Amino acid sequence: MRSVERAFDVLGVLEEGRVPLRLSEVARRAGLHVATTQRLLNVLIARGYAVREDAGYQVGPGVLTAAHAFLVGSRLGQAGLPVLQQLAATTGLAVSLFIPVGDARVQIARVEGRNPLRYLLPVGEKLPLHLGAGKSLLPWLPEAEREAVIATVCPFVTAAGVRVGEAEFREELRAVRDRGYAISVGERVADVCGVSAPIQGGHGLAGGITAVARVHELDADDHVRIGAELLRAAGAIATRLP
Questions:
Q1: What is the pTM (predicted TM-score) of this model?
Q2: CATH number for the domain harbouring residue 38
Q3: What is the SS3 assignment for 182?
Q4: 73-93 pLDDT, tens digit each
């Protein structure tokens, strides 16, 4: 079992690296001996989950087939896509579906609105829980996981340059839980705002749904209106889940 954990540790290092990494750097980041790291990399290469290039090691194409299998088989994705399409048509905004993964969130589906945003957020991108749509998940995570995130990130500065301390952040999370959805303005991307809501399945928190626009396109009344639409959409998705 330990060897499996170490293999995933190495794969995680490659995933987060984004560029080819030397063997010694992979070993350092994974906290493993170089010889152990080399053996694990050889296995990952043989399975297609890693490749070796002149500049070093990086994630291999095998992860794409695994990701495709997840997207095709995801009950949340299947249930959510028709709702996303309807929501994008109704609001004119870009909407997406995401799930919690460890201390982050990952987008699994996206539908563009009438005015596509300038920035691209690919499916599969790992994003923080304390900024933007991640705030719609954080209040409903198990307490230990939520506290670990808060302890790690606070204080932090948003993309718009706003400093957020621990007390302020906790108060915001309480507000998110009270109204049922999160509002973010210039947090992860300076000129983008969004409204997000959690999706509660039969086994607890299943994921979340978000609608985003440029900051100047939405005012406070729009946030409330879209929040209500997202709550209805999240409920519609939840009814389709087991």
A1: 0.85
A2: 1.10.10.10
A3: strand
A4: 899 999 999 999 999 999 999
